[in-house]
Amino acid sequence: TLTLVCGYSLTLTLVCGYSLTLTLVCGYSLTLTLVCGYSLTLTLVCGYSLTLTLVCGYSLTLTLVCGYSLTLTLVCGYSLTLTLVCGYSLTLTLVCGYSLTLTLVCGYSLTLTLVCGYSLTLTLVCGYSLTLTLVCGYSLTLTLVCGYSLTLTLVCGYSLTLTLVCGYSLTLTLVCGYSLTLTLVCGYSLTLTLVCGYSLTLTLVCGYSLTLTLVCGY
């Protein structure tokens, strides 16, 4: 069932060998029932570009509303690529080992590798605001086009909130006695070992006193 109106383009590549390309326009509502057990429901608004690679038997539901927000509930095996306009808000609830790439029109790029049990909330604006809750022993890698690159390895009970802007600003709130390692593309290397109740705020610029190794002249 298709309702076409403004100027959207949608391309689907299916593992079972099926391929589908759709061109939509403003305010469309789209529902697809595909061969090989695919089920797709879309509500599109102006400016979205979406590319999906799906595995047989899985379903995906997207709801794109005015104000640039969408909610995804994914099942194992999905590979998703989105191109969003700067200022869009994205909320994800992921299950089992996903790889997600997001690119904003303003040039920001972010890559996430998530494993079972991850809950992630992103506000993709020029100045990244990220909140996540991670489960035992998993790792997350972030690469920001702004020049930042972060590799996080978190242990049980971590609750992390960080805001990254081009001014090297980072805020962390960690649970009892855990260790966190961050690596920035500019050559920054930072290792933190925090104890119960510590709240740490740091700005990676000249003059900071902390157990860290900085490159690039800082």
From TrEMBL:
The chain crosses the membrane at residues 12-35, 42-61, 67-88, 100-121, 127-148, 160-180, 192-215. It comes from the Eukaryota. Keywords: Membrane, Transmembrane, Transmembrane helix. This is Uncharacterized protein.
